[in-house]
Amino acid sequence: MTVLVLHPGQMGAAIAAQARRSGERLLWCPVGRSTASARRATATGLEPVDDLGQALVQADIVLAVCPPAAAEDLAAQVAAAGYDGIYVEANAISPQRLERIIALLAGAHVIDASIIGSPPSSSASARLYLAGPPADTAVVAHLFTGTAVQTMELGEQLGRASALKMAFAAYQKIARALAGVSYALAEEYDLREQLRAEAGRMGGSALADPDYLPSVAARGWRWAPEMEEVAQTLRAAGLPDDLAAAGQAVLDRWAADKDRFDLSLEEALARLRPSAKDDM
To answer: What are the Cα distances from residue 210, in Å, to 118, 177, 181, 201, 237?
Structure first.
């Protein structure tokens, strides 16, 4: 089985590494990709193919894991090449965007997929939820047998995996954005430790672990567009999308700190102030 990994970002490369443990051949197309992507691809053991069309000819499965805003463009490139194999749409996108991608890839076997959990490794696992025809989802599930990726079947209805990701992301990311705002406010009055103490009494709250916030800031560039996907999903369901829009606005303040995992908590909180945003 040959798998083409469309976008070897942190999560995409980690998922691909698990598939490689099953002995699969993995390809990627380096054209237009960053040096960081190249490093991850090399470390994962992906074979470079300089022409996307040639890579697609060889691929039995295409694994699409990329920032939400790029999902349709990537699907359009694959569709333009006439790909007719299995396309695993595993991006954090709304069911509505998924429908547009399915329409683009009319000649392919599109699987609706979503990833929940940390990038899988020897010390962490992730769940890969799959929706689509059982014969196709079974092929994908087989790739990850005995790996740190646990596949979960959601039936044939396309859109269910994407909707689950949106429901999960709505809480996970908005809660952390709100925690950032709360700590930034407490910082104004030198009350960080008092807020942390009160949050600790609540138990199980994102507010109880402010040391996590710099890593949220480093991922704000990726999480902010995901909030637009959440908002679109909520609107389609007739539900309020105000919190998703607010979460996006907060995460946008951290967009310039892309992958800055070296930020201190003080720096991350300072970015939320309008004056700090204007200076960036």
So the answer is: 19, 11, 11, 14, 32
Torsion of CA 21, 39, 86, 166, to 10 degrees: 100
Distance CA 198, CA 261 (A): 26
Residues 6+ apart with CB under 8 A from 72: 97, 100, 101, 104
Q: Round to whole Å and give the CA distance between 90 and 71.
A: 9
Domains and CATH numbers, the chain: 2-157 (3.40.50.720), 162-279 (1.10.1040.10)
The tens digit of pLDDT for each residue in 125-182 reads 999 999 999 999 999 999 999 999 999 999 999 999 999 999 999 999 999 999 999 9
CA torsion angle 194 176 153 94 (round to 10): 160
Give residue 219's region: left, alpha or beta (phi > 0; psi -120 to 50).
alpha
What are the Cα distances from residue 232, in Å, to 129, 249, 275?
A: 20, 15, 30
pTM reported for the whole predicted model:
0.90
- Nearest CA among 168, 122, 126, 132 for reference residue 151: 126
Q: How many residues does the chain have?
A: 280
pLDDT in tens, 211-226: 999 999 999 999 999 9
Q: Tell me phi and psi for residue 113, to 5 degrees.
A: -135, 155
User: How many alpha carbons fall within 13 Å on the CB side of residue 239?
Assistant: 12
The span from the CA of 108 to the CA of 85, in Å, is 5
Amino acid found at 8: P
Q: If you search the block for the tokens 């970002």, which residue do you land on?
A: 9
Whole-angstrom distance, CA of residue 173 vs CA of residue 179: 10
Residue whose pair of structure tokens reads 């300089």 in the numeric block:
50
